[in-house]
Amino acid sequence: MLERLRGQARQDRLDPVDHAVISQALIAAAREMGVKLVRSAYSTIIREAQDASACLFDAEGNVVAQAELIPMQLGPMSEIFRSCAAAFPIERLEEGDFYITNDPYSGGQHLQDVFIYSPIFLGGTLIGFSGTVAHHLDLGGGNPGLTPDAADVHAEGLIIPPTRYSFARDWADGGPLQRMIAANIRVPHQTIGDFNAQFAANAIGGARLSELCQRYGIDTVRRSMAELLAYSERRVRAAISAIPDGIYTGEDAVDDDGLTDAPLRVRATVTVSGDTIAVDFTGTCPQVRRNLNCPFASTISAALSAIKSALTSPDIPFNEGLKRPITISAPKGSLLNPHYPAPVRARMEAGYRAFNAVLKAIAQVAPAKVMAGGNDTTHVTSVSHLEDNRYRVYLEIYGGGWGATAAQDGGDGIDSALSNCTNTPVEATDMDFDHFRIVGYGLIPDSCGHGRHRGGLGLFRRFEILKDGVNFAI
Known about the structure:
Strand content: 15-25%
Order of helices and strands: HHHEEHHEEEEHHHHEEEHHEHEEHEEE
Radius of gyration: 23 Å
Number of helices: 13
Largest sheet: 6 strands, antiparallel
Helix content: 25-40%
Structural class: alpha+beta
Mean pLDDT: 94
């Protein structure tokens, strides 16, 4: 009996060498998913700007590993997954099913970010999920690519509630879901192509996880997943423990809502207690009528990104374990947790105010760890044209100069920390669009803040419109 128990104990222990291989294979698989998604995409917003993300999950829907792409999209991937699982329980899923949603009021962010989660089965056993999110070029709404003046979320595009579908029945070969989406968007060829890129990325994640389980066994891979989460949690708790306990506050504001001159204040109270942090956004202004409202999932991302960037090391894997010592709350009906049906397309404006407010609070106790503010917003421009019953929609996210740190200058002409998109090369716009051309692109001299370490330089792009009837939105 004693020998049998000792043998069982040895079997239950995770071999450190196996764990090292499995954990890095999981991270590599998630990164491969990201590469697959970007390289398979049709639109420049994903193919060039890389406005998309990918993750691997355990069988309960916890993020285990992710591609290093867009922080704003990745932070609440598990929360958005849970909204789908609440509507359609995991135990009812079958091979070939998938979850899909983009609903800001059911755990999502803004409508253009569509989340797709695919269950991964091996021998009839659910071993995990692969998940992707992509910013889609056009999902309907009142204006091609971007609807700046939407009165509510319905005017911003097609809403997909947390739903379960079958890939073979509902999507493949022009299935009913694909046809329904295609009928409600202006650039179906590109957008459906980007959806297919998400499914392809999910498939490669499923293949890699299945291969690991076949080689090491499902139980061993599960234990390795759990240990990877525990490792991130231990590292984050240790980092939090290194700063003094206390209550610290920070504030920032959006200039106004475009309707009045009143600033939109965002207030963060950061409470450090032992190895935990609580972020409370009580004191933030109420939601507004314009599209500056930030869904709570995006608020979670902003706060998590601020804490991780300021207090932790880049080598800590971003997964569900990292989030365990951190709690985030925002009053319902506020700018950072609006009531339905407030428009939310420009959520990054308020999201960056939340990011800055948390950093300002942390700067009071760890000033050398916090970077200065800079191009803390997301500039989005859409230039579209309808000709011969076919839309061409150009959409791009621009960067700018970022703030310096205690150790180095700020970055020049890069996207902001929550977005992390790349630029779209001029050559790519020349190949894809004939209704405009870019005639100027560069850094703006002396546009930085000066100091021991200067801030980053801003950038400019100059366009020439080549046809009549071009639609411009920003």
